[in-house]
Amino acid sequence: MTPITEVEGRRLALSNLEKVLYPATGFTKGEVLHYYATVADSLLAHLHNRPLSFLRYPDGPDGQVFFAKNVPPGTPDWVRTAEVPRSEGPARMVLIQDLASLMWAANLVTEFHTPQWRMDAPGEADRLVFDLDPGSPATIVECCEVALWLRERLAADGMAAYAKTSGSKGLHLLAALEPTPSKEVTAYAKELAVEAERALRGRVTHRMTKNLRGGKVFVDWSQNAARKTTATPYTLRARAEPTVSAPVTWEEVTECATANQLVFRAPDIPPRLQRYGDLLAPLLNPRRAGALP
User: Fold this and answer.
1) How confident is the model over 56-108, as pLDDT tens digits?
2) Spatial distance between the Cα atoms of 248 and 279, rounded to a whole number of angstroms
3) C-beta contacts of 8-15 below 8 A and 24+ residues apart
4) Exposed, middle or buried, 136 (CB in 10 Å: 0-12/13-18/19+)?
5) What are the tens digits of pLDDT across the range 196-231?
6) Of the residues 77, 89, 204, 254, which has the maximum number of CB atoms within 10 A of its CB?
């Protein structure tokens, strides 16, 4: 029998709570839901008013993994949705605005992915992102070196950068922006990626071509495009273990010396939130937003 629970006055059917989703650690679906409930305040702040793309893995990362943007079948009528403009035609997408909606989405077993803009200004980015992706044998250690260079370069243009792990192999760098057309942000991000390639010769590439990325850090600037999304802070990832896209301090980035040093799993995050608070909270403050040069 599927247990029914009530969250903020909404009745939810939470299924298969004992199902192991991460066989490497025995982490169950019930533990996934508990994790999201525990970090909800911080996660919801970064999901607010951003249309959600679902990367679902209902049978764990070794099962079927599929990406969806449209409202899933069976979505309760109390989950907020919005029509999102797209070049191929408008789509109706989910907005996760409250704890009940978050737990409903978590019950689907999903990674949370969101764009760099909000629904009140579609296509007007309020943050800039770089996805630093290491090509083997490079690791997150090399990503940290590139992140430090980009941090200084962004500071020269008046922007404060913040870092989080991707929850996979790499690192994400983010900066708050005054609302700016996504095309302009994408062009600026590409310029900085090209600069990084020149300045860190032999260690960085700004091009997506796979055979150019061996041993280098790919500075992916393209996720600033209006149609693209990035893993939301605090989301679990569909990996062998319940790793999280976790905010990190610049001290941790500077001191990173091994690939495992910046791997954070679900049980690590609540103590980090107690210690640091939300390290990405400045991204939510319009007063911290910078302007492109």
Assistant:
1) 999 999 999 999 899 999 999 999 999 998 777 788 999 999 999 999 999 99
2) 7
3) 8/98, 8/99, 8/100, 9/100, 10/76, 10/78, 10/100, 10/104, 12/100, 12/103, 12/104, 12/107, 13/107, 14/103, 14/107, 15/107
4) exposed
5) 999 998 999 998 877 778 899 999 999 999 999 999
6) 204
Rounded Cα distance between 102 and 280, Å, is 19
- Residues near 178 by beta carbon (within 8 Å), at least 6 away in sequence: 126, 286, 289, 290, 291
The one-letter code for the residue type at 284 is L
Q: How many residues does the chain have?
A: 293
Bridge partners (DSSP) of residue 127 are 176
Distance CA 76, CA 4 (A): 14
The β-bridge relationship of strands 171-181 and 91-95 is: unpaired
